[in-house]
Write a structure and sequence with these properties.
The structure is a single chain. With about 375 residues, the protein is mostly helical. It has 16 helices and no strands. It is globular, with a radius of gyration of 23 Å.
Length: about 375
């Protein structure tokens, strides 16, 4: 028998939802006129009702996500609120992008409990990564049917179909801990071809977490030490003056300093691309990437665009899901994704964001089961 208090709470929640939806249906056509009366510069834009529709949809999605994953629902709601607070076309696009990721999480989570569906999803990720690693290998021989044609090029880089060496490395690093050992070796080979120190760091940490139980504590410690030394040597061999960790530190420093001017709510969605590149150029370009439209660090960029309140939501999510890295099968992929996010912008590129979203959906669902 369902407790009376539970029935009452559900009824109250349903009543609030229905009332909110009814009010929105009445107010929605008046969106542009309401802005006109307040003097908002967007009032003459015919897209205003469409924008309001997207933001309302984002809040509905936030409620649905919040029932299963409260921190993620809170994050989506805050992103939508930022988009409303600083209304820009780029903000609308970012809200839509975040909504797409949230919908994928909603779609993936129920499949975690079905063995066949779960294996099919992970198998598809592994197959996709294998194809990218093989493609990168073909490119090292100077042939590429997609980007460069079937003409030999001495300066061709192994970029797979992703068209970026770093993003290719991150894509392979996140998926490698999910793969069987022999397949993981192939994926690590693709990362080596990309010469991405961040990719090597992420995949090393991910594989160590993935196989820590098999290694045992003493061997796990030795394996960790060897991985750190190997990464240090590789980093020295591939370090270049054009784009180094020092350049990224300079970018982060400028971005964080600008964040202090709007510490609570940040500069809004797309604020980094609008504000930071001019500041970087004013100080002198750090290298060939003199207009860094992203921070090469998801946390730094989110702090700039979402402020302290945004960081608080991330901290809540980290605490809520603090045991994900210990997941026996997916913990390594989670670890690799976190490291990649601290050194680049994999969540800003759909190609690398999608496997991270799928892993997150599966891991969070299984952790709660």
């Amino acid at each position: 028998m369902v407790p009376a208090q539970s029935v009452t709470a559900r009824g109250a929640g349903l009543g609030v939802a229905v009332a909110s939806l009814a009010v929105f249906l009445v107010v929605h056509p008046w969106g542009a006129a309401a802005l006109r009366m307040t003097g908002n510069v967007w009032a003459d834009q015919a897209e205003v009702p469409l924008f309001l529709f997207w933001y309302a949809s984002a809040f509905v999605l936030a409620v649905l996500l919040g029932r299963q994953d409260p921190p993620l629902g809170l994050f989506v709601a805050y992103v939508a609120a930022l988009g409303l607070y600083w209304p820009t076309y780029e903000g609308v696009a970012i809200v839509q992008y975040v909504m797409a990721a949230g919908l994928f999480v909603l779609a993936v989570r129920p499949l975690a409990g079905f063995g066949l569906a779960r294996r099919a999803l992970l198998g598809a990720l592994i197959l996709g990564a294998m194809l990218q690693a093989v493609y990168a290998g073909v490119q090292t021989f100077g042939y590429d049917p997609a980007w460069f044609g079937w003409i030999s090029r001495a300066d061709m880089k192994p970029i797979g179909s992703i068209r970026s060496t770093n993003m290719l490395a991150i894509y392979l690093a996140v998926i490698a801990p999910l793969a069987p050992p022999l397949v993981a070796v192939v994926l690590v080979g693709g990362i080596l071809l990309s010469k991405s120190a961040l990719g090597l760091l992420a995949v090393s940490a991910g594989l160590l977490v993935r196989y820590r139980a098999r290694l045992g504590r003493p061997r796990w410690a030795w394996a960790s030490l060897m991985a750190v030394v190997t990464l240090g040597v590789i980093g020295l061999l591939h370090a270049t003056p054009q784009w180094s960790a020092l350049a990224r530190l300079k970018i982060w420093h400028v971005g964080i300093a600008d964040t202090l001017s709007a510490p609570v709510f940040g500069w809004g969605l797309g604020g980094w691309a609008e504000r930071v590149p001019p500041l970087i150029r004013a100080l002198g370009a750090p290298g060939p990437h003199d207009t860094p439209t992203h921070a090469h660090n998801e946390l730094v960029q989110w702090a700039h665009e979402g402020g302290l309140l945004g960081l608080l939501i991330v901290a809540i999510g980290v605490w809520w899901h603090r045991g994900l890295w210990r997941h026996p099968a997916l913990g390594g992929a989670v670890t690799a994704a976190v490291i990649a996010c601290l050194g680049h912008a994999p969540l800003h590129l759909a190609t690398t964001a999608l496997p991270i979203v799928v892993v997150y959906g599966l891991a969070t669902a299984e952790a709660e089961a």
